[in-house]
Structures are given as structure tokens and as C-alpha cells.
Design a protein that fits this description.
Structural class: alpha/beta
CATH architecture of the largest domain: 3-Layer(aba) Sandwich
Radius of gyration: 23 Å
CATH superfamily of the largest domain: Acetylglutamate kinase-like
Order of helices and strands: EHEHHHHHEHEEEHEEHHEEEHEEHEHEEH
Helix content: 40-55%
CATH class of the largest domain: Alpha Beta
Largest sheet: 8 strands, mixed
Shape: globular
Strand content: 15-25%
């Protein structure tokens, strides 16, 4: 079971976590918990690392002090014994002092090269703090529990900020260090988001990477199910912050939820689905404040034939336009390299359209890249293209990608026709039907995104 930042950030939320764990411990032989940092803490740590790189000592010290005050205030409100509380306070102080030492080291190298693993070590402190608080709360309630840092458990490559786990090596370490704990009825509370290279240097799995941690661990221990606990009732037909009428989707296939996650559903890390799909491990999305609700079940629905849209998403992207035709390999290579260098993410999906005189390509900017990613990537890419004669004709501009999700859309051309009919007043720059057969993406101008999203979601409501 993975608990997100909104599920661990308040006394009320932690009380719910405790109640859920105590209840499920009586139903399952083994429980393994993965936790995120408290809501907002990772963003604060990213800022602290950035300030340290700039040599702003006052800035990162202020952030550390704020985080200490927040975590200690949370501990004071929890029903802990004096011994447990004192030990926990000491743990928190030690972790934050270690963080300050790392920031100091980065500040001292201003003008030189800051080690990326130092940045990841700072950014991963939030999960380490949260894991210790939850483990202490469980111990106080007669559950044998221990907080485990995954720097030496989840083995990854050295792509700092967006690392990829090595499943075989991770399984070896889990078999050696984690399974014996489960066999002794210990409930491990494991840090999400964090990994480490084969030499032990800290890495992180990208924003929202705690989901990915839960997925990797589940595959390595042959879990029966994975449950993601959040502050929503399940996967929704749209982002409820954008469409208040969004409703819970009772069931989804692995393919559908993978497309949902990639194209903008913020509730799941897009890379977590692959390992679960390969091993056919069911995934449930549940509300930590409404544990009695069924939520959304994600499993193998390959035999489903349902002529209905299930969800619609919106995500930012970058469009590139040129008054020319010809091969796209050079522009694709430049964009991929630029995105990786600026936001730590490859251009995984490219939508392209060409005529005899014009070319258009579009790349998704993942939500995990952060709120400033679109501007940073656009600025860097424009500068890069300007300095190469063969790419100076390309113009870079923001776009929005609206994606309709539904099983086997390729079997229902009438439904696709209805989608286009509903968007008759929206200028569509490009169209792509996903090879997964369950997504149709439409590239539109950013100012048309809200209208397109609303109109497609109305189709979902009308089909109920």
C-alpha cells in the first residue's frame, strides 16, 4: 500500500492511515507500506537545493527551519509516548542537519560543478522524514514496524532526478534484506521516490516517483495487489480541478490507465504501470478518507468491447512548425536531447503531421517535470534551433494535447466521428490515434484547451 503526500500530511490523515493499516493487517498475511513526503515538502526541498547551488545560504536554512517546525508540530499532535516522540524528534533533527550539510557542500562549490547525487540526496529527505513518523505511529499501536530508506534497496541507473530501477538487481537486494522482515511479521515503511546507484549514490525516480517505487517493490515480492491511497475517490473521468462534474471510473485496463497517466492524470506516475502489466498485478486507487469506497480497479480487461469513452485529459506540450517538408529525424533528435538536458525527460511521444510544404511536430511535456518545464524547454529549444542553419526555419510554440481514453477505439469509427463533431468550433493542429488502441490525441491551441476538454467530457456524461 502506497500513501501519497496528502494522505500523510495532517493528524487527521495519519489517523486514517493508522486505522487502514490496523484493519488490513488483520486481513493480509503481509503488508508493505510505501510513503511519499508530506504534501509540498518535495517542492520545498527542490527549492532548497536550487538555492544551495546559487550559494544562497539564508534561503536553504530558512527552508530547513520551516520543515523542522512543520514536522515537529505534526509529531506533537500524534498520540505517541514520550520515548517514541523524543527518538522521532532526534531522527528528524539528524536528517535535516544532514540535509543542511549537503546544501552547505553545494553552496561551497558555487562556480564549480555540483554533484547531481547531492541534489537527489537533498530532494529525497521528505520521504525519509515521513517514513519515520509513520513507523513510529505503528509501533505505538502494537505493530512491529521499521522505516527503511531505499537508497540501498532500489537499484537504479545514474540518471539523477529521473532514474530507472534495475529490476533484477533490486529483486536480489529485496530477497536478501526485505523478505526476511516480512517473514518475521514486520510491517516495513519504505521511502518512495528514492533509489541508489550500484555504488550507493542517491537517486530519485522523478516527481511522483513513489508510485513507481510501489510498482517495482510489488513485482519484486510477487505481491497479490497494489493499493494507491490518495485524497480522491479513484481515477476520474477528468481532472476534478478542471471539470467539477468528473466522476469515478470503476475499472480500467492497464493500457487505458497507462495512457491516462502519461497524458496528464496526475494521480499516477506514468512509468509505474509497465511492471504491473507485465506481471498482471491488480492495482487499486482508493481514497484514504473513504476507505469503504471501492475506488478504481486496474487489471487485465483485454476481452472488453465497450463503445464508450471513459476519460479525457489535457496536458501541455511543445509544437514546432516549419514551412518545409522532409525528414524529421534531426529535429526529433534535437528536441529529445534538449528536453532531457532541461527537464530530465526524453521526448517519449511525438505527434507529427506533414504536407508537401509544411511540417508540424509536437512533444508532450510530462506533468512530473514541474510547472516551469514548458517555459524552460521552449526557451532552451528556441536558442538551440537558432544556432543551427538547418533548423532556423522552425518556430516553437506551446500547445495543449487533449486525449480521449476508451477501450479499443479503433473498432468504433462512429465514436471517433462524434469526437470530431463535438469539437467543430476548435482548431485542431494534429491528430494521433495511439497504437495501444485506447487513446485519441488532438493537438489544439492552449486557449482552446478548456473548451475542448469540457466538450469531450460532456460526451462521457451523455453516454452514462
Amino acid at each position: 500500500m502506497k500513501f501519497g503526500g496528502s494522505a500523510v500530511g495532517t493528524t487527521a490523515a495519519l489517523t486514517q492511515v493508522l486505522s487502514i493499516v490496523l484493519h488490513e493487517r488483520s486481513r493480509w498475511d503481509r503488508l508493505l507500506l510505501v510513503v511519499s513526503a508530506l504534501e509540498g515538502v518535495t517542492d520545498a526541498l527542490i527549492e532548497a537545493a536550487h538555492l544551495a547551488q546559487l550559494g544562497n545560504r539564508r534561503g536553504y536554512r530558512r527552508i530547513a527551519a520551516t520543515l523542522r517546525t512543520r514536522h515537529l508540530a505534526l509529531i506533537e499532535e500524534l498520540p505517541l509516548g514520550s520515548t517514541e516522540r523524543s527518538a522521532l524528534q532526534a531522527d528528524i533533527d539528524r536528517l535535516l542537519f544532514d540535509m543542511l550539510d549537503l546544501c552547505q557542500a553545494m553552496a561551497n562549490t558555487t562556480g564549480g560543478k555540483v554533484l547531481d547525487d547531492n541534489v537527489d540526496a537533498v530532494v529525497g529527505v521528505g520521504e525519509r522524514l515521513a517514513a519515520r513518523i509513520i513507523a513510529a505511529l505503528l509501533r505505538q499501536n502494537k505493530l512491529w514496524s521499521v522505516a527503511i530508506d531505499t537508497t540501498d534497496l532500489i537499484v537504479t541507473d545514474d540518471v539523477y532526478g529521473n532514474a530507472t530501477p534495475n529490476i533484477p538487481l533490486t529483486r536480489e537486494r529485496i530477497n536478501k534484506h526485505l523478505l526476511p522482515m516480512l517473514e518475521r511479521d514486520i510491517v516495513p515503511v519504505i521511502t518512495g521516490f528514492i533509489g541508489g546507484t550500484t555504488t550507493g549514490k542517491p537517486t530519485t525516480l522523478g516527481r511522483g516517483g513513489s508510485d513507481y517505487t510501489a510498482s517495482v517493490l510489488s513485482v519484486c515480492i510477487d505481491a497479490d495487489e497494489v493499493w494507491i491511497w490518495a485524497d480522491v475517490d479513484g481515477m476520474m473521468s477528468a481532472d476534478p480541478r478542471e471539470i467539477p462534474e468528473a466522476r469515478v471510473i470503476p475499472a480500467l485496463s492497464y493500457e487505458e490507465v497507462a495512457e491516462l497517466a502519461y497524458f496528464g492524470a496526475r494521480i499516477l506516475h506514468s512509468r509505474m504501470i509497465g511492471p504491473l502489466r507485465q506481471e498482471r498485478i491488480p492495482l487499486r486507487i482508493k481514497n484514504v478518507f473513504k476507505p469503504q469506497e471501492p475506488g478504481t480497479l486496474i487489471h487485465d480487461l483485454s476481452t472488453l468491447r465497450s463503445q464508450a469513452l471513459k476519460a479525457v485529459t489535457s496536458i501541455q506540450g511543445l509544437g514546432l512548425t516549419a514551412e518545409r517538408s522532409g525528414p524529421l529525424s534531426l529535429i526529433a533528435e534535437i528536441v529529445d536531447e534538449t528536453l532531457f538536458n532541461t527537464i530530465g525527460s526524453h521526448a517519449d511521444v511525438m505527434i507529427s503531421s506533414q504536407s508537401s510544404t509544411h511540417s508540424f511536430v509536437c512533444f508532450v511535456i510530462p506533468t512530473s517535470a514541474g510547472p516551469d518545464a514548458i517555459h524552460t524547454a521552449q526557451t532552451t529549444l528556441e536558442e538551440r534551433l537558432l544556432h543551427q542553419p538547418e533548423t532556423q526555419s522552425w518556430r516553437v510554440h506551446p500547445v495543449s494535447i487533449i486525449t480521449a481514453i476508451g477501450a479499443k477505439l479503433d473498432l468504433f469509427p462512429g465514436l471517433i466521428g462524434e469526437i470530431f463533431q463535438s469539437l467543430r468550433d476548435v482548431r485542431v493542429l494534429a491528430i494521433a490515434q495511439g497504437p495501444s488502441r485506447c487513446s485519441l490525441s488532438l493537438v489544439v491551441e492552449p486557449q482552446d484547451a478548456d473548451s475542448a476538454l469540457l466538450q469531450l467530457h460532456q460526451m462521457i456524461l451523455n453516454s452514462a
